[in-house]
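ok so i was messing around last nite and threw this chain in just to see what happens. nothing serious, just curious
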Amino acid sequence: MKLGVYTAVLHDQSLLDALSTIRSLGLVGAEINAGGFLPTPHLPVEGLLSGRVDPEEYLAAFVETGVELTGLNANGNPLHADPEVGLEDAEDLRRAIRVAALLGVRRVVTMSGLPAGHPGGRWPAWHVNPWDSGYLDSLEYQWDDVAVPFWREIDAMARDHDVKVCIEMHPQNLVFNPPTLQRLVDKTHATHVGAEMDPSHLFWQGIDPIAAIDYLGDLVYHAAAKDTRINPACAVYGVLDDRFTRIPASENPTGLGGRHTVNRWPQDSSWDFVAVGRGHDVEFWSRFLAALGRIDPDIAVNIEHEDTELGQLEGLEVAASTLRAASAAAAQPA
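result:
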């Protein structure tokens, strides 16, 4: 098993410095952003695709630090109806697959995307608990008319490049839980599309990540180490907490493509993303790693740090310490 870091949290460092940071934490893998929501300071996408940058030259930093490039990340919404978002994110995913093949990387992480609710719609529409038949009409359009053709294309491209596309099961996407991941695979007859097992969004939906691993089996291609803490406010607001507010342009909110930006998180939130170990203990994480190991002993598990209560390196240190302890515990005989 390859424990590492998704380097988005280290975008203020050079690639070599970021890899050195990862190695100093006792970790051996790195997942690098290749497009989508976030920029690509650690990956010269254009240079690699044009041939101006030699793959071996780029990979030299990994060899020097002893950190393996275990995956690329192109999280975005490739099905968004706004062409400044959907078309660009879809093309970023295609480019990420091509770059992965050039670098000998076999995993590309992304999201399934979410279309508008009907032809001509402008905004993504997430239909859960579709008790009204109209919602089922909309879901049929989203799945059969939009998602299935796109994902058949991506699966074929991934197969041609010997790359597995790993979908993060993320709310506000068509694929947000294990059954919707399985549905996408079944509808497209995919051979090279599966799951990135990120437990953080499963936690707040009330899904047991270990049961999810067992359910999906060998469709689990890749994993993230990211924790979630359920807060007391959840007793009143529930997990579908809608108290987000706009971040003024003067505060430089994170862009999501086109004119779309990230909103401000509720202050007294129902749940928060926290460093690994601050939502669930070593015992849970040891069972999580053991379950992944039953599927693929060589699977990559990369820390994704989004704990706003801890600094950049502090959060990584907490997460790495928890993962190392969990890995040691998982290796012990039952």
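not much to say yet. The longest strand covers residues 68-73.
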